[in-house]
Design a protein that fits this description.
alpha/beta; Rossmann fold; five-stranded parallel beta sheet; 7 helices; globular
Length: 236
């Protein structure tokens, strides 16, 4: 609606499919001003997905939104998250966007931390069927690859797999694995989509295993033209 002022917001950002889709859905009612990404104490990789911080920065550049990266341990995560939100609030941010789907414990944490920080929490994906979200992600034009898996459930053979309809069909038949990876069975990294001005192209990567997880360690990417973004600009 014309005349409605969209609140300045940040997205709790992992670089994966759920936060990207929540960003996309949230743009209808929110103005996304920042991406908030929690990283390891060493500062070299993201806290949740193990993606190199420089690759996360390149992803944010492709989207065209400032990325705020904050170091923390799992023990200091909440305190550091709140400090980051306090900084964003000083910049006029009123809303935090989160990508959880149906894990009540996560929702309670996000709503409590947001409330205690003086902002509102919005969960655009909440309550939507998990497989429906996978199809929406693909049909919206997003492109993502698997960058982390639980070694005992999926191993390293799934690393680098594209999230497409064939993937949905195959992953749905794997015993003990949620199709959306909502229980941490796998994590993704988004390369392109409707929120991207540029597309990320992986140039160099290798598979590594540590502490029960397999990772696709992406060490080099480059930005190329995003055909979806170009098509929309041409149509406009």
């Amino acid at each position: 609606m014309e005349g409605v002022v969209k609140p300045k917001s940040f997205v709790s950002w992992s670089g994966g499919k759920d936060c990207a889709l929540s960003y996309y859905r949230a743009t209808e009612t929110n103005r996304i001003a920042y991406l908030l990404n929690m990283i390891a104490e060493t500062g070299d990789v993201s806290r949740s997905h193990g993606i190199r911080t420089k690759i996360m920065q390149l992803q944010a550049e492709a989207i065209g939104v400032p990325l705020m990266q904050v170091k923390s341990s799992w023990e200091s995560y909440e305190a550091q998250f709140k400090k980051a939100v306090a900084v964003l609030k000083e910049k006029g941010v009123e809303v935090g966007i989160f990508g959880d789907i149906d894990l009540e414990e996560h929702r309670q944490w996000e709503e409590r931390v947001s409330r205690e920080s003086g902002i509102s929490a919005v969960l655009p994906l909440w309550g939507t069927k998990r497989e429906q979200l996978l199809h929406e992600f693909i049909e919206s034009g997003f492109e993502a690859v698997i960058v982390a898996t639980k070694e005992d459930l999926l191993g390293d053979k799934w690393l680098g797999r594209r999230i497409d309809k064939d993937f949905i069909s195959e992953i749905s038949n794997v015993s003990g694995v949620d199709a959306s990876g909502e229980n941490g069975e796998y994590h993704t990294f988004v390369l392109s989509g409707p929120i991207f001005h540029k597309r990320l192209q992986i140039v160099k990567s290798e598979k590594i295993t540590r502490q029960g997880y397999c990772f696709l360690d992406i060490s080099e990417c480059e930005l190329v033209e995003n055909e979806l973004h170009q098509a929309r600009n041409t149509k406009d």
